[in-house]
Design brief:
- The complex is a heterodimer of chains A (about 425) and B (about 425).
- Chain A has 3 domains: about 160 residues, PRC-barrel domain (SH3 type barrels); about 100 residues, MgtE N-terminal fold, CATH 1.25.60; about 110 residues, CBS-domain (Roll).
- With about 425 residues, chain A is α+β, with helices and mostly antiparallel strands.
- Chain A is built from 18 helices and 21 strands.
- With about 425 residues, chain B is mostly helical.
- Chain B has a single domain, classed as Amino acid/polyamine transporter I (Up-down Bundle), CATH 1.20.1740.
- Chain B has 18 helices and no strands.
- The termini of chain B are far apart.
- Classes of the chains: A alpha+beta (about 425), B mainly alpha (about 425).
- The interface between A and B is medium-sized, with 23 and 18 residues.
């Protein structure tokens, strides 16, 4: 016996012998029952005559390249496969996600580990094989003896993914439950990587992923995609699910993506959103896409102009979620008109009792909601700024544009 | 009314957003091999072959429409689907034949580049290497959107054929009559010509390219209605250009003295009596078609193979990440361009071989396409309707018959 592993393509068509060492048939497929065990091969489907038998793992006493030896006479015909992940049918040739390597791969073969006990031999899924070595092995299998193939493939580098880093994508929710498939592992990836992966998948798989992963991860992932893909994903989801995701997105991005949708769909999604989020997003939707109003975000830090450095620090402690990407504190007068802007870094150098007004940048650089996208970009370039406050006709603070918005605009050109 | 206008505007906007895949595929179809075939048909038989363009257009539309529909609904390439449904071995055999057929197709494109630029007095030892390097960089360093724009512009250059068609002042009345009047003759070379016309118009690689391009463009089932129009318009355009090529050669060569021509250069030179412009326009058209197809074929082949076999692919990956993809792409161009520079390379024989391989591959590709497009699990409500299936199968059977005949005659030609 060569080694303690077996490739799935070697297992296929392996002869199966009963207690009296009579050949009863050949292996046609093998299946995991993930609800019971995530990696143990639980069932062997054996073609005997015109029908298939289903043989359980504990009915087998020996597995080798020569064949499978049974230890039990009571065999059952194969009928239902509701709880089975059939390796030949459901895994081979299909696309899976390599969580560790952050890419979509196609399964060429599966490496199984043989664990031997005194009673029986068991197979465990160890790795999923991709790359040239498994292609060669599979093309030759059946035409050349199994042992010779093992020798022939030696010089080619192994290209495999450990089973625990594989994520199967199942579009049917019923089957997903029965097969105990979750997409939890995907949540550990960087949203930008996940976005690349999701874009490679078909529409049904894409929908399945967005329906099951955490809505915050889904929102971050969606933000990394181009607007056309965003729209087609949101349209495919139930409005409640879509609304949960949109609520988690930055306001300006939420407005952009809803603006991309057909009116009917975007209204359905807005209906399902929390009142506060809905109002803010609806306001942003009013602006033309390529103006400062369309670019801006309504999440910013603002304080009355007479506030002190201490007030600012208290405010930031209370609104921790703002800290990411924040570099300006905006000052407004009693009516909400923008009067100044203070660089965050200034707070570190100033004493607590100093008023923010005295720290404000001079001159105050701001944009009007109707300013064109090109003008806004020019301002960023000319003044080397990261955040640009936006005001409406009455000088009231409406939102801010951040450098990442500008990068997206430039990338789209 | 306002509502109606708004809807109309929406559809027009979507139409322009989906333009690309169908146009490009259909127009690349008139590559250097196609132009030679059409020129030959016109020079030898005059206006007679024009009637074949109508049935060819129908068949072209039927096959292209199925591919783009599969692309839009499944958002997967044809080789992906074949792999998923029919396994690795079938995919491997198909991809091997596809590579072999396409490498000879690429040779034909570079031969077209060489002979067209020679009419502009550029040596092939300059034109072929320069174009090969340019083609390689265009795909590897350019991004898809800008490359697509260049390609769409190249589609416009085909107008040169229409202009040269008018310059030779053909007999429009005969042309019009022959377009709608089928003529069958039991003459071996006439039948060969008919088969050749069908064979060059519907090639296996197109099905792979079109479906992949639809997926790449991000066209979904929702925008499919507009995408279908684009595909159909593209197919019509192919036939219009073919019409003008045949008419040019019929008017310029056949009407003076019917004869056989062997390459595009000879066809262009046949237009000489009608002025230097006619020749140069024809040559420019040939160059455009050849370099256009030379840019698309190797890339499309590399994509199909890598996707089907599960190797990393894509020009946004590095050489280290997707070695098979880059090697295949580079080799296709290097071999395709390199052999043109060999003094005694049997190019004509290779092109016949490529027709045989294409002919062997096409029936399988078409049968897989019909089976896949009727797979409810993949296509949901987008499967073929009963009449569509009847027409599609009929098309497949006719195509199989014709390509078998083509294979037969090509093998005879080699003997």
């Amino acid at each position: 016996m060569a080694g303690n592993f077996l490739y799935f393509t070697e297992l296929l068509n392996l002869p199966v012998y009963d207690l009296k060492h009579r050949r009863i048939g050949r292996v046609r497929d093998a299946a995991l029952v993930p609800l019971v065990h995530q990696s143990r091969v639980d069932r062997f489907l054996v073609g005997a005559g015109s029908s298939w038998l289903s043989i359980r793992f504990d009915q087998i006493s020996g597995i080798s390249l020569e064949g499978i030896q049974l230890s039990d006479e009571k065999l059952f015909p194969y009928h239902s496969d509701e709880y089975m992940l059939r390796m030949g049918r459901d895994l081979l040739d299909q696309q899976i996600i390599d969580v560790n390597g952050r890419k979509v791969v196609r399964v060429n073969d599966v490496t199984l580990e043989i664990q031997r006990t005194s009673e029986f031999d068991q197979l465990y899924v160890m790795e999923v094989d991709i790359g040239l070595r498994s292609v060669v092995r599979r093309l030759l299998q059946g035409a050349v003896p199994r042992k010779l193939i093992r020798t022939l493939q030696q010089p080619i580098a192994i290209n495999s993914i450990r089973w625990e880093f594989c994520n199967i994508v199942e579009a049917d929710p019923q089957r997903r439950l029965r097969l105990n498939i979750s997409h939890d592992k995907l949540e550990l990836m960087h949203p930008a990587d996940l976005a690349d992966i999701v874009e490679e998948l078909g529409p049904a798989e894409r929908e399945a992923i967005f329906e099951t992963i955490d809505s915050e991860v889904a929102a971050d992932t969606l933000s990394e995609m181009d607007s056309k893909t965003q729209a087609s994903i949101l349209e495919s989801l139930e409005p409640e699910v879509a609304a949960d995701i949109v609520e988690e997105m930055a306001r300006d991005e939420a407005a952009d993506v809803l603006g991309e949708l057909e009116e009917e769909t975007s209204n359905e999604i807005l209906e399902e959103m929390e009142q506060a989020d809905k109002t803010e997003v609806t306001e942003l939707l009013e602006f033309e896409e390529d103006t400062a109003g369309g670019l801006m975000n309504t999440e910013y830090a603002s304080l009355p102009e007479h506030a002190t450095v201490t007030d600012a620090i208290v405010m930031l402690r209370e609104n921790e979620e703002l800290l990411e990407n924040l570099n300006l504190i905006l000052l407004v007068d009693g009516q909400g008109r923008l009067t100044g802007a203070v660089h965050l870094a200034r707070l570190f150098l100033a004493a607590g009792e100093i008023t923010l007004k005295s720290l404000a940048q001079d001159p105050l650089i701001k944009a009007h909601v109707d300013m064109t996208q090109d003008r806004v970009t020019e301002l960023f370039d000319k003044y080397n700024i990261f955040t640009l406050p936006v005001v409406d006709g009455a000088g009231m603070l409406s939102g801010v544009i951040t450098a990442d918005d500008i990068i997206s605009v430039l990338r789209q050109k | 009314m306002a509502q109606l206008l708004k809807r109309l505007r929406y559809h027009i906007a979507v139409f322009f957003a989906v333009i690309g895949p169908g146009f490009i595929t259909a127009v690349v179809d008139n590559d250097s091999g196609g132009i030679v075939t059409y020129s030959q048909a016109g020079a030898r038989w005059g206006y007679l072959p024009l009637w074949t363009l109508l049935p060819i257009t129908v068949v072209l539309i039927i096959t292209q429409e199925m591919c783009s529909r599969m692309g839009a609904v499944t958002e997967k390439g044809l080789s992906d689907l074949i792999r998923e449904e029919y396994g690795l071995r079938v995919t491997f055999v198909m991809m091997t034949v596809l590579v072999l057929a396409n490498v000879t197709n690429v040779m034909a494109e570079f031969a077209g580049i060489a002979s067209s630029l020679e009419l502009f007095h550029v040596s092939r030892f300059v034109s072929v290497p320069v174009c090969a390097v340019a083609v390689w960089f265009l795909a590897v360093k350019g991004n898809y959107r800008s490359v697509e724009k260049i390609f769409l512009f190249a589609c416009v250059v085909y107008i040169t054929y229409v202009v040269s068609g008018f310059l030779v002042k053909p007999d429009w009345k005969t042309a019009a009559i022959d377009t709608v009047k089928p003529v069958l003759m039991l003459d071996a070379s006439y039948i060969n010509m008919l088969i050749g016309m069908v064979g060059t118009t519907i090639a296996p690689w197109m099905q792979f390219y079109l479906q992949a391009a639809v997926v790449e463009k991000g066209i979904t089932a929702k925008a499919y209605a507009e995408s279908r129009i684009e595909v159909i318009v593209g197919c019509l355009l192919t036939s219009v250009i073919a019409f003008f090529i045949i008419v040019s050669c019929a008017g310029a060569i056949w009407s003076v003295h019917p004869r056989d021509i062997n390459d595009g250069k000879e066809a262009a030179l046949g237009l000489e009596p009608f002025g230097q412009y006619a020749v140069l326009l024809f040559a420019a058209g040939l160059f455009n078609a050849s370099i256009f197809a030379a840019s698309i074929l190797p890339l499309s082949t590399a994509y199909s193979v890598c996707e089907g076999m599960g190797f990393e692919s894509g020009v946004n990956k590095t050489f280290r990440e997707a070695p098979v993809f880059y090697w295949l792409y580079t080799l296709l161009i290097a071999v395709g361009a390199g052999v043109i520079l060999l003094p005694n390379f049997p190019l004509f024989k290779m092109i016949l071989w490529s027709q045989v391989l294409n002919g062997v591959l096409l029936p399988f590709v078409l049968i897989f396409m019909i089976l896949l497009v009727n797979n409810k699990r993949l296509m949901n409500e987008w499967t073929n309707s009963r009449p569509a299936n009847a027409i599609a199968w009929l098309t497949v059977i006719v195509m199989i018959g014709l390509t078998l005949a083509l294979v037969g005659t090509s093998i005879q030609g080699m003997g």
